[in-house]
Amino acid sequence: MDFFSILILLVTAYFVFKKYGGSGSGDNGSAGDAGKVQWLRNETIRWLEKNIISIDQQKQILFLYGEENKESGKFVPYEAGKTGGKLSAIKILYIMSAILLGLGAFLFVASNWEKIPDIVRTLMVLSVTFGTFYLGYVFSYEKTGYSWLGKALLLLASIFWGASIALIGQIYHIPTSDNWLIFILWGVPILPVAYYLESRPVFLLSSAIFFAWNFFFSQSKDAANYYYPLIVFALLLPLSKEDKLSVHANVAALLIAAFYAMFGRHQDYLILLIAAGLLAYCFIKRLPIYFISSSAAFLVWLIAFSSAHPDSPNYYFIVPLALLFYSAYETNLKEALAINLLSFVVWFNLLLLAVSKTVFFDKSFEIAKILVLLLVGIIYYLIGIGYCKEEFMKEFSKVYKIFGFVLVVLFVYAFSFKAIYPKSAVLSYELYFFTALILGLISLVLLAINSLKNAFVEKSSKYELIALVTVLVTVFIVLFAPMLSALNSILMNGVLLLISVLTILSGFEHQNKSEFDAGIAIFVVLVVTRYFDTLWQFLPRSVSFIISGLLLLAFTVLLDRQRRKFIGMMKNG
Amino acid sequence: MDKKKAFIMILLLWITIASALILYKQYTISTGERILLKTVPVDPRDILRGDYVVMNYEISRIDLGKIMYDGHSFSSGDTFYLILGKSGKYWVPEAIVPDRPKDDVLFIKGTVNSAYGSTINAAYGIENYFVPEGQGIKIERNIRARSNSSVDVEVSVDDFGNAVITRIFSDGAEIKFK
C-alpha cells in the first residue's frame, strides 16, 4: 500500500475521530436524568407483561439510555459524554487497523487466488462466512448498543454463505442446469437466521433467493414449479411473523410467478394452486393483502384457463368468485371488490363465448355480445345506486358506480361507430340474444326497485335516471333491430352526448371535479372521433375545419364560463 | 429459543451442509475410478458461456440400437445407468439399464434430457467445466482452430455412478489454468 493511500486513511481517521470520538464532544442526546430513565424502565416492564415487546427489544431500548449500576443494582443514565452507542477514539483506531488488515488480506488473496489450492480457497471463504456470522451474533446480542452493526453483519454473513455454496459448486463443476440446487442450498439455511435471530433483511434475502430459484427451476426443467408456492405458503409466510414488508414481498412474488406462468404451457394448475393458497390464507390470517391478491390471482387463473382450454366453459370459477365476493363484503375491502367485478365481467364473457360455441353451436351475433357487456355495466351502476343510501356501503357504492359507468361509456362509445354494425345484421334468437334480454329485464327490475326506494329524488339522481332510461331504451332497440345500423349508431351517439352533458351537470350539482372532468373528456372524445370519421369524410376539408373550429370555440367559451363559475362556487364553499 | 443456542445450531447447520456438499463430491474424486471420455464438437457459439466451458461427450447421445438394451422405455427426467467398457484409451457405452447394476462393472449415472425413437440425449452432471475468467479461450481455440483436435476429459466415477471432472486434455496434453 503506497504512501498516499496511508495518508488518505489517516486523514479519514482524523475526521471520523473529530465527529464521533472523545469525551464531551459530539451529540450527547442519549443521556437523561435518573428519574426519566427509571420511568422508562418501569414502562418497558409493563410493555413486556402485555407482550407488546420482547425481552430483547426491552434490552435494546434501555441500553440506548443507560445501564445497570453494578453496586446499587439500579438502572442509571449514562455518564455525561459517555453513551451506549458512540464510538471512542480507541475503538476508531481498532476499526481502522482492522479495515487495513482486512483490506491487505483481501488484496493478497485476490492477487494470488488462482495459486491457492481449491480446498484452501473453500476453507478461507467458509471461515470468513462463519466469522462474519459469529460477529453478527455478538454485536446483535452480546454487545450492547451495536445491534445495527450486528444486523448488518448477519446479512453480510448470509450473502457470504451464498458465495461459499457457489464457490463449492464451481470448484466441483456442478452443472449450471443444477443452479436451482445452489439457490435452495443458499435460501433454506439462512431462514433460521431470519427467524431465530430476528433479521428482516435476511428474511427478505431468503425470499428473493426462492423467487429467483422459481425461475431457474422452471427454465432448466421446462416445467411448472409447484414447489415454489408450497414453500411460500408452508414456510416463508408462517415464518414472516406477519411483518408487513415480508408478507407483501412474498405475496407480490407469488403474483409475479402466477403472471409469468400465464405465458407457459399448461401452467394453469400452478396459477390455481397460487390462487387457492392465497384464498386459504384469507380465512387463516384475514389480512387485506390476502383478499386483494387472491382476487387478482384468480383473475390471472381465469385468463390462463381460457387460454389453455379455449373452448371449455369454466364453470369452476363460480365457486372461488362467490367466496371472493363474500370475503370482499365481509371485510369491506373495495380494492378486492373492484378486482372481483372485473373478474366477473371477464368470466361471464368467456363463459358465454365457450358455451355458445360448444353447447349451442351459435353463429356469432356480434352486436349482442357487446350489448351483454353494456348491460352488465348498467346493472353494476344500478347496484351502486342501490347501495348509495346505506351508511356502510358508501365505498362499495362508488366502486360499483365507477365500474358500471366505465363499462357503459366504453361500450356506448363502441356502438357509436357505424362500422360495428355488420352489413347483414339479423336478429338471431341465440344464447347471446336471450342473455341480453334477461340482463335487460334485470336492469328494469333494479331500476324499478331503486325508484321505489326513492333513489332518484335529488336533482343529480334524476340525471342518472334520464341517462339510464335512455341507454336501456336504446339497448332494446339495437337488440331487437340490429339491422337498422344507421339509426342505431345515431341513437348511440345521442346517448353518449347525453351522458357527457348529464355527467357535467351532475359534477356541478355534487361539486365534484372528477365527475365534471369525466363529462368533458367524454364530450371531447366524441367530438374528435366524429370529426375524423364523419365530417372529414363528407365535407370539404376546409369547411370541416371551419365548422369544427367554430363549434369547439363556442363550446370552449361556454365551458370556460361555467368552469369559472364552478370554481368560484367551490371556493365560496 | 435462546439466541446463543440458535446461533450455535445455525452454525452447526451451515457447517454440516458445507461439509456434506464437499464430502459428497470429494468422495467421488477420492474413491472413484478415473476414466477418460471423448468429447464431441459442440456448436461453437455455445462453447463458452461466461466463465465455464460446455462439455458434450460421445456418451451424451446414446443410440439404443448400438448397445445392450432390455427394451425399457425411457422418458425425459428418468435416471439410468450406463455401463462403460474400455476401448483403447476411452471408455465407451456398452449397455444401459434403469437400475443400479449389482455386478462388478463400471457405470455412470445419467438423466434423460429427451428421448426420441432409439436415441437418448442424456446428462451426467459433468457438462460444465468452470474456468478462471478469460482462460476458457484456450479450450475454445483448441476446439475451433483444428478440425481434428480432440479434447478429452478425465472423470472420476464412484461406486454409485456419480461423476466429477478432474482434468481436461487437449491433444493429449493436460490443460492447466494456474
Task: Please tag this protein with its features.
heterodimer; A: 573 residues; mainly alpha; two-stranded antiparallel sheet; B: 178 residues; alpha+beta; four-stranded antiparallel β-sheet; 24% helix; globular
Structural account:
The complex is a heterodimer of chains A (about 575) and B (about 180). Chain A has helices at about 5-20, 35-50, 55-60, 90-110, 120-140, 145-170, 180-185, 190-195, 200-220, 225-240, 245-260, 270-285, 290-310, 320-330, 335-360, 365-385, 395-415, 430-450, 460-480, 485-510, 515-540, 540-570; strands spanning about 65-70, 75. Chain A is mainly α. Chain B is an alpha+beta fold. Chain B has helices at about 5-30, 45, 135-145; strands at about 35-40, 50, 50-55, 60-65, 70, 80-85, 90-95, 105-115, 120-125, 130, 150-155, 165-170, 175. In chain B, the strands form 3 sheets. Chain B has a 6-stranded mixed β-sheet with strand order 4-9-8-6-7-5, with no helix packed on it. A 4-stranded antiparallel β-sheet of chain B has the order 1-11-12-13. Chain B has a 3-stranded antiparallel β-sheet with strand order 2-3-10. Chain B is globular. In chain B, about 25% of the residues are buried. Residues about 45-50 of chain B have low confidence and may be disordered. The interface of A and B includes residues 129, 137, 174, 192 and 197 of A.
Fold blueprint:
The complex is a heterodimer of chains A (573) and B (178).
Chain A: H1 3-20, H2 34-49, H3 55-62, E1 66-68, E2 75-77, H4 89-111, H5 118-142, H6 147-171, H7 179-187, H8 191-196, H9 200-221, H10 227-239, H11 244-261, H12 268-285, H13 288-308, H14 318-331, H15 334-358, H16 366-387, H17 394-415, H18 431-452, H19 459-480, H20 485-510, H21 513-538, H22 541-572
Antiparallel strand pairs in A: 1-2
Helix pairs in contact in A: 1-4, 2-3, 5-6, 6-7, 7-9, 9-10, 9-11, 10-11, 11-12, 11-13, 12-13, 13-14, 13-15, 14-15, 15-17, 16-17, 16-18, 16-19, 17-20, 18-19, 19-20, 20-21
Chain B: H1 3-31, E1 33-38, H2 44-47, E2 48-49, E3 52-54, E4 61-63, E5 68-69, E6 79-87, E7 90-97, E8 106-116, E9 119-123, E10 128-130, H3 136-145, E11 151-157, E12 163-170, E13 173-174
Parallel strand pairs in B: 5-7
Antiparallel strand pairs in B: 1-11, 2-3, 3-10, 4-9, 6-7, 6-8, 8-9, 11-12, 12-13
